[in-house]
Structures are given as C-alpha cells and as structure tokens.
Design brief:
The chain is built from seven helices and ten strands. The protein has helices at 46-53, 76-86, 102-112, 119-128, 144-156, 174-191, 202-205; strands spanning 2-13, 20-31, 35-39, 61-66, 69-70, 87-90, 162-166, 195-198, 210-215, 218-224. A hairpin with a 2-residue loop joins strand 4 and strand 5. Helix 3 (102-112) runs parallel beside helix 5 (144-156) and helix 5 (144-156) packs parallel to helix 6 (174-191). Pfam families: ABC_tran (PF00005).
Length: 269
C-alpha cells in the first residue's frame, strides 16, 4: 500500500538572483511498513522534502498524497486534521510537558482530540518501547533516551499512517541513539508502522531498509538495504532486547517481517 507519494515536488525560496531551489522535481513513494532514511549533506533538501511530505511546508509545485489523499490545495483546517489523525512526528527536541507523567504526555494528543486509544494498541506500543515501568515518571526523572521513547509513543499512540522523524537521534548519546533506532525498526516489524527519517548519520541510516540520498535538491540514489531493519544496531542496547531480528533479505515494496518477540503484531491504521 502506498502511504506517502511525492510527485514532481519543487520548492523554491526567494526570487530573482536570490532564488534558491531546495527541491528540484523530486518524486518518490513510501509503502506501508517501510523504514526509510533520507540522507544528504547540509543544504541538500532532505529536511525540506520531509516537511513538504508531512504537510508542514507547501511545495512551490508538485503534489503530495497521504494514503491517497492529495494535500495540494487543502485548507489549513484540513491539513491540521490530516496531521492529527494520520501523521506522527518525532524531532530532536522531546517537547514533553514537565508537569505531566510519561503516560500523561503520551496520551495528551488523544485527550485533546477527545479520543481514547484501544487498550490492545496502547499496551503494544508501551511494550515495544519498553516503557511499562516508566509511565508514572516525569520527564526530569527519565534519561534522554527514555524521554525520546516517550515522544515516540506519543507520536505512535494515534495509530498514524506514517511517522516522520527529523534527526531523532541528534540530541542523544551513542547508546541512547542505538536504542532508539532499534526501537523504530522493531516498530516497523511488529506494529506494521511506516517511518520516514531524515538523518546525516550513516550508521543510523544503516538500521533502515531503504536509503534515499539527495544532493542539490535531487535524488541521487534510492536503494533498498538488504537486511532486516535494525540489525546494524547493537541489539543489547534496545528495549526488550530479548528479541533479535533475522537477517533475511528484504526488497521494496517492503513486507512486514514476522514478529520477533511476544509483542502482538497490530496493523497501523
């Protein structure tokens, strides 16, 4: 299933001699269950591409489709609904409210929308992220890696079609970064989640099953990585390290590998 589709995206900043082309007719498709990395040097257009695909920025021309819905021409209220109901976001900063517990931070977007996640989905998310014994803790009682996992749970709890992650390991130490990457890969395997991640880190990209490289606003390479996502990250650092991903080859479009542990496999909406 096509979850995200970009068609001939072009993004231009400025005018005349000051014009900068950030994206130059970029087209790509992200399918369900993929863990895709977007890479490139500074100024390559990788963050601009993610922001356009996520409805956070408007392309100068071209179209973006989320689960078949064309974002082009949507009004702000419509885009807000799409972002709230179908997209999840993870950034470098954790953006947790300090007065709330981990559980309250995770559930806050759903409560603001007057919604309640299913108990099975909630339990699966908390289990995959290894947060069961941290739900009553406030952010200042959690490590950086634990805070980022709370932010991931908050992004995931609404069962989004896709999670967009912009340099999610940028504020983490090496061990916490490896932990988070293994967790993201495990989410794709066990929950059928789709993740699109911008990163400048080759080691981070190696945990995904697809690497899209940009330079000067154009895609220069788009390669399927022939390993199960997450196998390049040290498993012992991951939450629930009882599971070990297999090394069977994968190809795009991605399929959902078999569940590597006892966590129930639930389909992302």
């Amino acid at each position: 299933m096509r979850v995200v589709e970009a068609r001939a995206l072009r993004k231009v900043y400025g005018e005349g001699n000051a014009q900068v082309v950030a994206l130059d007719t970029v087209s790509l498709t992200i399918t369900e269950g993929e863990f895709a990395a977007i890479m490139g040097p500074s100024g390559s257009g990788k963050s601009t591409l993610l922001h356009c695909m996520a409805g956070l920025d408007t392309p100068t021309s071209g179209s973006v489709f989320i689960a078949g819905q064309d974002l082009s021409g949507m009004k702000d209220k419509q885009l807000t609904t799409i972002r709230r109901d179908q997209l999840g976001f993870i950034f470098q900063s954790f953006n947790l409210l300090p007065t709330l517990t981990a559980e309250e931070n995770i559930l806050l977007p759903q409560r603001l929308a007057h919604r309640k996640p299913s108990r099975d989905w909630y339990d699966a998310v908390i289990s995959v992220l290894g947060l069961t014994d941290r739900l009553s803790h406030r952010p200042n009682e959690l490590s950086g890696g634990q805070q980022q996992r709370v932010a991931v749970a908050r992004a995931l709890i609404g069962r989004p079609k896709v999670i967009f992650a912009d340099e999610p390991t940028g504020a983490l130490d090496t061990a916490s970064a490896a932990n988070l990457l293994q967790t993201l890969a495990h989410m794709c395997q066990t929950l059928g989640q789709t993740v699109v991640m911008v990163t400048h880190d080759e080691q981070a990209a190696a945990t995904t099953n697809r690497i899209i490289r940009l330079r000067d606003g154009r895609i220069t390479n788009d390669d399927t990585v022939h390993h199960t996502p997450g196998t390049h990250t040290t498993p012992s650092t991951a939450p629930g390290a009882r599971h070990t991903a297999d090394h069977s080859p994968t190809s795009r479009p991605a399929t959902h590998p078999g569940t590597p542990g006892p966590t129930p496999r639930l389909e992302a909406r």
